[in-house]
Design goal:
With about 325 residues, the protein is mainly α. It has one domain: Rhopdopsin 7-helix transmembrane proteins (Up-down Bundle). About 80% of the residues lie in helices and about 0% in strands. The chain is built from 9 helices and no strands. Helix 2 packs antiparallel against helix 3. The radius of gyration is 22 Å and the shape is globular. One of its GO terms (cellular component) is membrane. It is a multi-pass membrane protein. It is found in: Membrane. GO terms for molecular function: bitter taste receptor activity; G protein-coupled receptor activity. Its main location: membrane.
């Protein structure tokens, strides 16, 4: 979901690529609608009742960051196609890149902390440290949210400094982004400043996410094996609940993996910007982004209840 990797100066004329871009825009609209519903459903309850479960608060925060991120990426995509020869570091694109960097980092951290909460609250480990975290973690939620915003802001400022210095260097030396000198300066800055900074920024929350997911899936797997020995099979309600939880976690992990890989591939330049392979990869990523809010709607009990009430109100039933 990288909106920072588009290199301007070229336009997409391939019909297949244009079709994929159209599909991308539709998938982004679906993702925006799904995350918007999550924000509305849980956010209204949070405001009215002033009470919400910690995991649901993280879901609202994650949904808000994804909603804004999808909107920023869509806006940048439209700008790039309307101005294919625009200067890569002009004020408009710097402003969009600033928003993208912040929202991207916030999305990674909110996803990571959500995996931490799932792991601590659902897993059945009996280690004293784990039990202590289970008791204390909910009270730390305000500090967790503030720290996520603070870390995202700090890294965004570092990204902005690098982008702005490149912009100033282009203006000072009257360079064009598509000539040899301009490309060499850009490549040097990206290779020795932006790329290491990106890898550090993205790898830290990703490592925590994977550790928590491995622990949680391991715990659920052990619990399912024990449940199979005492129940009549997979049709038991308890087993179905465990299977649904496991599938929801696996979908969450798959989305996070695809999200992280898209960032790394784009930063490393594996897929040439605006190439057909690039749009194919982006379509796969945004398909996951569009599907995951739908999975959340059916796996979260509060969201499922709101969805049922909306259906009943439309049908005119009490």
């Amino acid at each position: 979901m990288n909106g920072d990797h588009m290199v301007l100066g070229s336009s997409v004329t391939d019909k297949k690529a244009i079709i994929l871009v159209t599909i991308l825009l539709l998938l982004r609209l679906v993702a925006i609608a799904g995350n918007g519903f999550i924000i509305a459903a849980l956010g209204v309850e949070w405001v009215l009742r002033r009470m919400l479960l910690p995991c649901d608060k993280l879901l609202v925060s994650l949904g808000a960051s994804r909603f804004c991120l999808q909107s920023v990426v869509m806006g940048k995509t439209i700008y790039v196609f309307l101005h294919p020869m625009a200067f890569p570091y002009n004020p408009v694109l710097q402003f969009l890149a600033f928003q993208w960097d912040f929202l991207n980092a916030a999305t990674l951290w909110f996803s990571t902390w959500l995996s931490v909460f799932y792991c601590v609250k659902i897993a059945t480990f009996t280690h004293p440290v784990f039990l202590w975290l289970k008791h204390k973690l909910s009270g730390w939620l305000p500090w967790i949210l503030f720290s996520s915003v603070g870390l995202s802001s700090f890294t965004t400022i570092l990204f902005f400094i690098g982008n702005h210095r490149m912009y100033q260097n282009y203006l000072r030396n009257h360079l064009q982004p598509w000539n040899i000198t301009g490309n060499s300066i850009r490549s040097y800055c990206e290779k020795f400043y932006l790329f290491p900074l990106k890898m550090i920024t993205w790898t830290m929350p990703t490592a925590v996410f994977f550790i928590c997911m491995i622990l949680l899936i391991t715990s659920l797997g052990r619990h399912m094996k024990k449940a199979l020995l005492t129940t009549s099979g997979f049709r038991e309600p308890s087993m179905q609940a465990h299977i649904k939880a496991l599938l929801a976690l696996l979908s969450f992990a798959m989305l996070f993996i695809s999200y992280f890989l898209s960032l790394v591939f784009s930063a490393a330049g594996i897929f040439p910007p605006l190439d057909f392979k690039f749009w194919v990869w982006e379509s796969v990523i945004y398909l996951c982004a569009a599907v995951h809010p739908i999975i959340l709607l059916f796996s979260n009990c509060r969201l499922r209840a709101v969805l049922k009430s909306c259906r009943s109100s439309k049908c005119g039933t009490p």
